[in-house]
Structures are given as structure tokens and as C-alpha cells.
Design a protein that fits this description.
Blueprint: H1 2-6, H2 27-30, H3 52-72, H4 76-84, H5 91-94, E1 102-103, E2 109-113, H6 118-123, H7 130-141, E3 150-153, H8 167-184, E4 188-192, H9 194-200, H10 207-210, E5 215-219, E6 222-229, H11 232-237, H12 242-259
Parallel strand pairs: 2-3, 2-4, 4-6
Antiparallel strand pairs: 1-3, 5-6
Helix pairs in contact: 3-4, 3-8
The structure holds uracil (URA).
Amino acid sequence: MEFYEAAGVDAALGETPVDRFHAPEPVAATARPVAAAPPVPPPAPVQATLPNAQKTDEPAQGLADAQALAAGANTLDALRAALEGFDGCGLKKTARQLVFADGNPGAKIMLIGEAPGRDEDAQGLPFVGRSGQLLDKMLAAIGLDRSTVYIGNVIYWRPPGNRTPTPDERALCEPFIRRQIELVNPKVMMTLGGSALSTLFEVRQGIMKTRGQTLTYAHGTLSVPSVPTLHPAALLRNPINKRLAWQDLLMLQRLIEETGAL
Ligand code: URA
């Protein structure tokens, strides 16, 4: 287990363990030897992707379900229940549980990250691992904490091994996070990292080039000033960039004052 942990393998993807030391003998080894066996044709190419009908229809149906479920939820509790009942996103199968939100649902400051990691998956709350501890310090630096902000993610289930969510997975979760923002109705938002930024905004460039300015989150009747900043996990990897995040936090603080979000 230690070896696997060190190698970054921290998620079991199959239901039953496979003992590869006692795998059954290959059939060819026990078969009667044949003098001049006819040449074995090369294996048919493995179909790496779903047949077309499935490839296009399944995500489309999932997306239609996601949109209908999200639109039909009129409270945050109803939205959480809708997500609990939604089976259209494959991540749900490998995750332990839904990670919906943390913080104060009545807060007017909303923070949005990417996806739950191992600790979040275990506890069912966003940003409770190492990035969460850094996030708490970032918030404290401008006088905020989890009683004054509401925190969510653009993906609701942990991707196995913390891999990057696929475009399909992001698309399937998008109606829910957009509805969640609508229901919270924040006065100010902050996106953490490139995933949240590119899911919620039509930006042409990545986080490093986009941060440093206020964007407007425009959706339905909402128009919310939003500060894009670096993801705390990225700051843990490159602490030199904390100075950029500090500038972004000051920008958020100014917006909070201007909008009376606190
Ligand atoms: N990273 C995120 O983006 N969200 C979490 O909840 C935890 C880590």
C-alpha cells in the first residue's frame, strides 16, 4: 500500500481484487502442441471509443437530464438532492460521495474551485485538504472565513486519482454549478484556478494571463463581479506566485467593500 501511495495510486477502480501472482495459466501453454499451427491473424483493432450512437447520445441525454434537474431545483437543498439522484456523470461511480458545498449559504461572497480531492471525497466537503488549509489562510488574510463565504466546485465528485476532469464531465456538471450560483445569488465571486475560470467564463487565455482583472459573471439575470485567482494547490507547488494571489485577494476585498457583500 505504501508503494502504491508513493506512486500516486490512491483509488481502487475495480470492485474485486485481482491476484496477478496467481493468474490462471494462459490457455496456449496447456494446449496440445500443434506441429504447424496456421499463422494467427493479428487481433482486430480494439475499439477505443464508444460506437457513434452511444458516443453522441449518452452524454447528450445526460446533459439534458442535468439541465432539467438543475432548472427544477428552487433551493440549494433541492439542488443537492437533484445531484444525489443524478447518475449521468461517471465520476459518481468511483467517488465515495457528493461534495456539494461548504460555508454559509446566505453569504454574498462565493468561491468556486475545480473538483474534490481525496480529503474532500472522504469528508464530503470542499477544500478540507492541504489546499483548503491554504485557502483558509488566504481568506483570513482579508478578514474572511467559512462563516462569511460560500464555497463550491465546478465538479461535484472526485475524479479518480485526482485526474483532470474531462470536457464531458465538466459539461455534465455545469448546469448544476450555474444553478448553484443563481440560488446563492452572490454579490462577488472568486474563481480558484483555470478549470473554474474556463467553465464559467468565455476566456481565451489561461489563468496566468487572465488574473489581475475583474470579470463579470453574466448568466440569466445575474451579473456578478468576479476575481479569477490561482488555485491554492498551484500556490503550494509554486509559492512564489502567492504574491499574485495576494494582489487578487486585495482586489476581492475592494469589491466586497464596493458592493457591500459583507
Ligand atoms: N481542489 C478544489 O478545486 N476543490 C476542492 O474542493 C479541493 C481541492
